[in-house]
Amino acid sequence: MKRKFLGIDIGGTNIRGKIISEEGSTLGERKTLSDAHMGISRLMENLAGFIEGFAGEGVSAIGIGVPGTVDRASGILVQAPNIANTRDFPFTEVLSEKIGTATPVFIQNDASCAALGEYRAGAGRGSDSMIMITLGTGFGGGIILDGKLWPGEDGFAGEVGHMTINPSGPICGCGARGCIETYVSQVAIKRIVREHPELRKRLAGTEESALPERLAELAREKDQAAISVWNDLGTNLGVGISILVNILDVKTVVVGGGLSGAWELFIGKAIEEAERRCLGGAQRGFQVKRAALGDDAGVLGACYVAETGLGERS
Does the predicted model carry a pTM greater than 0.85? Predict the structure, then answer.
């Protein structure tokens, strides 16, 4: 009998699930609210109920993309800054008890899942190796080397948002100063607007969650202050890309996440700066590509995590 794999992507607002066949065809999908902001207990209840909705599908394994640092081998969620009470949480053990089946459950960082999805079915398809950068609330990433997701020795590889680009810069959520996440992310844009008198005045009354989108609108209307913010964001992104390319020697960099909706406002500066800083410059032949799968990258990647995890157990 052919196997089926259930992939689940946990977001701050929604849980999304998709079942694929061994050939990669989508067999079913659905979503529900995650209530992640209410803490890990509520999230696990919602997740267990969500999985039970697929009970009749006969899936061979479940892969789950989690917004945090994971120990994939033990199934432990080491930490998740946006979900309360998650320090060293035994994620797969608790979930398996709640769903009451022997179906294997595998977890992976959500950005790494997105990287795997784009590598196998999106913008990274055909590459030997690839870096995925996700520009959302933070600055996430995943690394594919020689066709495999590279977890690192402790499973923490891909935390690219914590590359230091200015040791005297703003304090990051991790406690350090000057991480690239403090310059290239939705959080960064909100901070920059707060600190910029002209933009703060112009965007007064705008919901904080809508600031990146409104800033993009201003830039498209040729507002010079807004254009400057996006140019700086692009330049700093280029610095980060050059660090990763110089260290890992990959040819493909895929950029996705919510901020990629403003692609044309920052990508030119990003590529220009990356080429200037990369050893060998443009002659290196690396490409910076826009992610192709949108919200499907993470959930598809989670399907592949289930498939790979089952294969490793065989």
Answer: yes
